[in-house]
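Board notes, transcribed. Complex of a protein with 6-O-phosphono-beta-D-fructofuranose.
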Amino acid sequence: MPSPWDALYRHRDAVADRSILSLFEARPDRATAFSRRLGSDGASEGGGEILFDFSKTNLCDTGLGLLLDLARAAGVEARREAMFTGAKINETEGRAVLHSALRNLGGSVTVDGRDVMPGVRAVHAAMYAFARDVREGRFTGQGGAITDVVNIGIGGSDLGPAMACLALAPYADGPRCHFVSNVDGAHVHDVLAGLDPETTLVIVASKTFTTIETMTNADSAKRWMAARVADPASQFAAVSTATERTAAFGIAPERVFGFEDWVGGRYSMWGPIGLSLAIAVGPEDFDAFLAGGAAMDAHFRSAPLEDNLPVLLALVGIWHAQVLGHATRAVLPYDQRLSRLPAYLQQLEMESNGKRVAMDGSELPVNSGPVVWGEPGTNGQHAFYQLIHQGTRVVPCEFLFARAGHEPGLAHQHRLLVANCLAQSEALLRGRSLEEATAIMAKKGLDGAERDRQARHRVFPGNRPSTTLAYPKLTPFVLGQIVALYEHRVFVEGVILGINSFDQWGVELGKELALTLEPVLSGDSDGAGKDGSTLMLAGYARG
Ligand code: F6P
């Protein structure tokens, strides 16, 4: 039987010369047919309708049908159910994958014969109680009410809460939150420099509580605190699965918030790794964020594949990255408060799906997930859009925008923002032909060879694919929907690729080598066995 991939490759070749614009001309209802709306039933409190438009891609009914066949052949539906019901689908680590349980607090899920939900609810309750104590001044520092919270963590213990704290800034009415991640001492130094140790709470967020960057920064923060605070550990809290290590660090058990190994680091912001966010916006808004995630879970779990938003995002992703071979995908939020979304998605997508072997250890017959990158619009327009429009490589673009901002007095700026977003996807689609460019140059008074030369620089090839995700407003609920949407998209892509999206062995080698290089830099090791380049650079660093 021919593989669904082969059918897709044949289809790709058959439609290679077709322009996306011609698809719109051939089918007046294309925009409706190749978009989906979620939440139009008004079911989502604080939410509203999310619109996913994938009509500006070279997908037609046939292509979409073949992608859906691929998803079905890969067993997406069965795997999805296995995930939600606590099966150990993280097969290389022997773990369930249950971040969805952190946002669906009412249910019951069994792992190893035990309902894990009572434990999840207890941790949530403790985390909310602590967040309230901090916000309402019952938990204080030596100098009184907490004014600043510093989250020390890296990767999944940083990117999610840091992204969300910025995204939900209009809802932040608690202490200011800051984030320290890099082992570069400049980071912890610069963040702490402006803070008062006597009114600062430090959260050490690390699933393993062994990550060298986090533990080194936590030690530095403790020393900074100790210079002014008699009992520095009393102004520390911890979020970790490793409670014996948090105790060894000196953090009292009542300020340690645990979670279990079936929550992957990059999927963990829904639980206590989100403590900084819960303190910033308060438990009610954090609950709304969870409700948004849970609403997306319900949709993902029950909607037919052809109307399922995470599935459709994944299929468009597979079409661009694995079928058409585009190596990267740009995420372009026209929403300044989502400026950390691309960085967050880099970990979510690249740590999850940047893998060269399938679950059974065999080499992938197709490319792994794409390079994900991006910046908010309109800033990116004045930086790298040149390449997106006129470079030789095609970069599928993923635009995001909100119907409304949070600044009613600046509605005209929001209009301008959205106009720019729509203009970019239109320009990518439409392009500008040589004839059009030549006419423009002629209008400017040029003629002959100079007109033609100048015109060629002004040609936009167009026919460049993009998708747009539009949402009513960046509320806590909507942010929850968006994050869960991306999580499930990554999951579906992983199932189709046949990989384990929930381990991250690829980060280990560099960590191990860093441990062997530190003594080379300090002069305690001669670095025998290292290559010449590494030794030269180490010598330079030693000075
Ligand atoms: O090194 C990669 C990684 O393990 C990520 O997967 C994780 O999010 C990050 O490090 C931080 O890990 P931890 O929360 O255990 O400190």
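The chain has four domains: 35-94+287-432+458-502, 103-284, 433-457, 506-542. DSSP finds 21 helices and 15 strands in the chain.
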